[in-house]
Amino acid sequence: MARKSTKTTENTMSAIDEAINTPVNFQFCEVAEDLGIGEAELRERLEDKTGSAEVHQLDSIPVDWEPAIKAIKTDLEAESSVRRLTASEPVSKASEAPVEPPIIDEPIDTSKTTNKRSKAKSAAITKTRKSSLEKGAKSSQKTTDLEQMATATLAAQKGTRKGANLAAIELTAQEGAYQHVKKEGLKRQIAKLAKELEDEKNFDPQEMLAALGIPGLEDTENELNDLIEGTLGKLGNATQEILDNAWMNGLDTEAELESLQELLNLNS
Amino acid sequence: MTTVILGGTDISKALSRQVTLPPKQRWSRRALARHLKSLGLMGADYHTLDNWERDRKLFRGIKDFRREIPLDDKGNYPDTFPFTAYQAWVIVKVAYILTSLRDDLRGCEYLPLVAKTLANKEIQKHFLSRDIWLYELSEAA
After folding, report:
1. pLDDT for res A155
2. Most exposed of A69, A72, A154, B98 (fewest Cβ within 10 Å)?
3. Poorest-pLDDT segment among A9-13, B44-48, B70-74
4. With an 8 Å Cβ cutoff, is B106 touching chain A?
5. What is the pLDDT of residues B16-32, one digit of tens each?
6. What's the pLDDT tens digit per position in A244-257?
7. Residue A57 to residue B121, Cβ atoms within 8 A
């Protein structure tokens, strides 16, 4: 029975080991699927990273290019996070509203923390925190929507009320103005009538003449009376003097008067 | 002017040759193979053209050529697609080089060398870009 040489066996084993340990190139389709992009885009990105245009002619990605694949993965994550930020503008608006703090389900064991130094809580975003944050963001979004709706309704109601108030004010103002005008008209009419009556009652032609600068009848009468009285008085005195002196001058007054009377009668 | 020589073939001279194609919007592989056959060039059958484009990815290094390859829903290159007028122009130009090289480097694996040469951006800019194609079209008109 022929015995297999140990050298041949060793060679075979080493060849197998080498084959096992040899890193296998990455397949474009697998990597592209893993990264969530198309094969064409993966090739373009690899060209950008490696600077080799030959990547478009390769059937598989060399193992040496693993850092480039990782860099592409990082880039894609960064791009998707940027896209999330830009796409979620309403969410950012919602974030202005107070976000409810996530409820911690895990009970805190205080007995352990009393003796030991309390550990600072990790700020890393775990799945639970992420989901609670998302929930908070959603609820705040909902609240914001409701708030916006309520604000709109209130504004509409306010507007309606304001319109009604304005209309009421306008109507009242119109009515007030009308009443005022009416009252003023009535007042004027009454005043006119009252004045007429007053005028009739207190009518004094003397005053009117006095106002016009024409002397009144009474004044003229008085003046005339004074004048007549004066003249008549003088005449009386002169007559009496004539009568008194006539005797001295040798005249018979009575005879003279009779002859005068006769003369007057003759003339008439 | 860029000068590239592969074996005894002056690539730049071969690429400078003005190529005029019958006016067609789309070229099927068979139609282009028939045209190459009429010119007495390599790639005169469907399988050769398919081998150059899909298996060897000979023209994928040319940026403008790549841009005109349609993509499927997942963003991958399809197995087969009709060539555009520009792509057909590139293939005919390359067919001139390959025919010359075949005679020159018979028995050698020259396709990888050609692929590498075509991936050169300077060569693309001077001989195989879309702008050059448009220029040649206007010259022919």
Report:
1. 82
2. A154
3. A9-13
4. no
5. 888 889 988 999 999 99
6. 777 677 767 777 77
7. no
Listed in sequence order, the residues at least 6 apart from A10 whose beta carbon sits closer than 8 Å to its beta carbon are none
Alpha-carbon distance of B125 to A147, in angstroms, equals 60
Which pLDDT belongs to residue A100?
A: 54
Instruction: Give the pair of three-digit tokens for residue A125.
Output: 């975003």
Q: Provide the percentage of residues in chain A whose pLDDT is more than 90.
A: 1
The Cα A25–Cα A62 span in angstroms is 5
The mean predicted confidence, pLDDT, of chain A is: 77
pLDDT of residue B113: 85
Put simply, whether the predicted model's pTM sits higher than 0.80 gets the answer no
Round to whole Å and give the CA distance between B85 and B68: 10
What's the CA gap between A117 and A97, in Å, rounded?
Answer: 35
Helix spans in A106-126 (H): 110-115
CA distance A136 to A100: 6
| Distance, CA of B59 to CA of B7 (rounded, Å) | 20
Instruction: Map tokens 């885009």 to a residue.
Output: A41
Residue B86 to residue B132: CA distance in whole angstroms: 10
Q: Which residues of A fall below an 8 Å CB-CB distance to B? A: 29, 32, 37-41, 43, 53-54, 56-58
Gap between the Cα atoms of A16 and A18, Å rounded: 5
B63 contacts on A by Cβ (under 8 Å): 53
Q: What is the interface size between A and B, counted as CB pairs within 8 Å?
A: 42
Per-residue pLDDT tens over the stretch A98-125: 555 555 555 555 555 445 565 666 666 6
Tokens of A217: 């009848």
Q: What are phi and psi of B46, to 5 degrees?
A: -55, -45
Buried b / exposed e over A173-187, threshold 16 CB at 10 Å, is: eeeeeeeeeeeeeee
Query: Has residue B68 got a pLDDT over 90?
Result: yes
Q: Is residue B35 a contact partner of residue B21, using CB atoms and an 8 Å limit? A: yes
**What gap in Å lies between CA A252 and CA A245, rounded to an integer?**
10
As a whole number of angstroms, the distance between CA A194 and CA B28 comes to 116
Nearest to B19 by CA among B90, B118, B80: B90
Query: Minimal CA–CA distance to B59: which of B37, B77, B40?
Result: B77
Q: Exposed, middle or buried, A45 (CB in 10 Å: 0-12/13-18/19+)?
A: buried
